[in-house]
Amino acid sequence: MEYEISKKYLLEGMLKMNSFGTRLTGSKGHTDFINWIKSEIENINLPIFSDPFYFRRWEEKHSSIEIIDGDERVNIPVSSAYPYSGETFAEGITEELVYVDSIKDIFKIKDKIAVFNVANINFLPSEIAFDKRTSYPEDVVLEKKYEGPVITSFVQCFYGIVSKLTKAKAVILIWKGLHDDMIEGQYLSFIADYQNIPMLWVNETNGKHLIEAAKQHKKAKFVLEAEIEEKAFTESFYCIIKGKNQKECVIVNTHTDGTNCVEENGPIALLQLMKNLNEQPLERTHIFVFTTGHFRLPYFEDIRTGAFQSASRWLAMHRELWDGKRDHFKCVANLTIEHLGCKEWRDIDGEYKYTGKPEVELVYTGNDFVDNLYIDTVKERKNIRTMTLRGHNALHFGEGQNFFTMRIPEISLVPAPYYLCAVSDTHEMEKFDIELMTEQTETFAKLIEKIEHISSKDLGKSDLYSVIKAKSVSGGKDFSVNGLFEMILKK
Length: 491
Description:
The protein has 13 helices and 17 strands. It is α/β, with parallel strands linked by helices.
């Protein structure tokens, strides 16, 4: 099999994607990006099969906070809006600020603007979320405590519910323990359904002014205007490149909606792989899937396939392309590609900056066989920091989860930098490495080639989730039931 990975093509694709702006589910930028992807596919003469969807779309248009101090108005910069939280009229809400410092304060927020500190989740061992298979080089480790804006917002997603139940008018969430620059523009949390109460994020520095104002019973003007589209259109789509074997297939997938240059640039890599494979003699049929809804999961997830990612809806709708029953295709392997070219940025001595290293490639591998296959392939690379993982404690990040739960052997690339969900004018391009993206794309081209010559029996099935017990990802001792009890007792 011949293949050529063009750095020029990938970079041009990245710049084209950025030109559409932020690509939130069903937005104009997202629709324009999808149409461009489809035009690129049409240029290589492949038919496109589309699944249209209509949903209620919410998108922030303007937000602001002003503390009212007599005749003076003090502007407090907003870091971002909480997606699908709620909205105000243009004149906003002007009410007293109430700082919720303890449980008893919850009952003071009726008809007021509630102010909460949202502390960085930095006390959970990384082994709660991750079970290591392999790392390459061997000294690659993750942080001992799993933390950052994504996990913090996912775990602490109850503020809207609590505030709504206690009839607050609006909510201000203050990031605590995370660098101000790190949390700027974060589109979080995107896993919650519509909250019906407007919520805004503020960084820790500016949050101190709000807390002080609340303690002095000052009022604030809170504005969160949003565009609501009741029947917004979006679509998932897929392409089939036929092979000699019309019974077995390999599915390569990603999603199309995203916030910046790495979330989600997987479609650019898929286009390159499709250009390589088209018109080549293939043993197996290859199906390339581009799903929508990753940033609107409450609507697009489908638990019939045992997972909560946007590909779950596609899998539920197209069992004929993967489940192996009757005359259906049997999917013998899945390759999920997300978040390519990520540089590692961290809070170093009070400055949020590049560490000089690539972000650790988190890669879920379905079983030991495909794990060895992946590690053997990346050993050929120059720029590599990777750790392979097994789905653990019912947790599995990224769109590969859907295939893992269906026992399809997966290799799923899903690096998780702190800036993954950040919306910015630069599209986070200062944190992107085209050389790394090129190498990662080439890795998947080689994997496709190798899988062509491996029997479905050898590829096997994905393992089940591991539970509690986990091989350490942080270089310490492996996690166990005893370790869990020790952690609980310490608390």
